[in-house]
């Protein structure tokens, strides 16, 4: 029997099967998770479908109040939740608390946005109104890097717009989502929120189910493509937030001493496992050695370890597969470039790799061209800025990026030339529920957050009346 329960039709139930959740810092079992069968996934979808008419008619103010109640309950349990998050995901406790704080901000802000109808014409002969109605059952699929935040903001966006939900966390980090399921049971009417877990096998069933109206998916680009194909048959609405290979471009006028610390932090937060993390830095020849030396000094000083221990700044890779993948990137980087600092792989247990600063690589090398999603940072020298922009735009990803310069107008003009959904100037990773977030090219389809993101959970309807 598992320590956690699924939420199906207002009841907390055991899965038809179960599996161990592994703490990546110790490789020990943290807890036993339920595993839902296809029949349980079907029951969750049926419950969400049955709850939809009532929930979609529930006044906005009531939906908003219940979401705020969820935020209250989560915050009342924040310390326990943070420990669970650190143990299942690996991130240091302080980062786990930060994720909980973000989650609260997302719930409360999204719960404050009411999509208002708009009258487009009101004349003698006609009246035309534009309005947004909910879609029905939303399937929300989350990855393992921010298992609480991503799972919950999808839930909040779907619910505030009047949809019902079947949520599915990642198999390696299901526990915080199952905790939220427990909180939701006491707050929402039966069937409005359902949470199922799997071993990477329920996705195709959920995303192709005829009773599901929309899929909100965050994960890898490869899986995103499968979701899109699987949703095609019934033309489901989809939002895909996928992988990225964010570049930070340092311009020749930048104050390099002031940049070293922020660049390091934006690259290595959550052990580099952030879709929006800096994944490569381009720097002019003249500033190259100084930047590499500065980043290397920080890498050498950072404390890596079990996120539950005091003072630890960087935890392990989240799971064995990712650990293996990042080790392959590391081996490739050693072969073609130089690991100037870090890149140590301590003897087990735990999926640890110390943050590595890699020099001597260029476009065309794997670590520069691909999403490493781990604590390896290539620093690439350049002499021609146009070539850098060309190389970035030629890649398949387009999530975000940043430009670092003392000349804001110059930086802005460059920003407009880069094909990404977000481009920061003199910072990175600044996002929130009030700022729309979208991936360009193979980094995604659609928008999340803000009013624009919420609209994706609705059907635009025009009511056009002749007088
Ligand atoms: P993943 O694609 O392996 O898994 C994501 C989720 O999809 C999991 O819940 C998984 O069980 C589920 N899944 C697996 N196969 C499926 C299928 N065929 N159909 C439907 N669902 C399926 O991704 P991951 O390894 O958990 O996460 C890391 C990736 O996520 C990275 O590429 C990262 O850049 C990306 N990511 C993107 C964002 C963003 O907002 N753009 C945010 C976080 C992570």
From TrEMBL:
GO terms for molecular function: betaine-aldehyde dehydrogenase (NAD+) activity. CDD domains: ALDH_AldA-AAD23400. InterPro entries: Ald_DH/histidinol_DH, Ald_DH_C, Ald_DH_CS_CYS, Ald_DH_CS_GLU, Ald_DH_N, Aldehyde_DH_dom, LUC3-like. Pfam families: Aldedh. PROSITE patterns: ALDEHYDE_DEHYDR_CYS, ALDEHYDE_DEHYDR_GLU. It is an enzyme of class 1 (oxidoreductase). Residues 17-463 form the Aldehyde dehydrogenase domain. This is NAD-dependent aldehyde dehydrogenase. It comes from Congregibacter litoralis KT71.
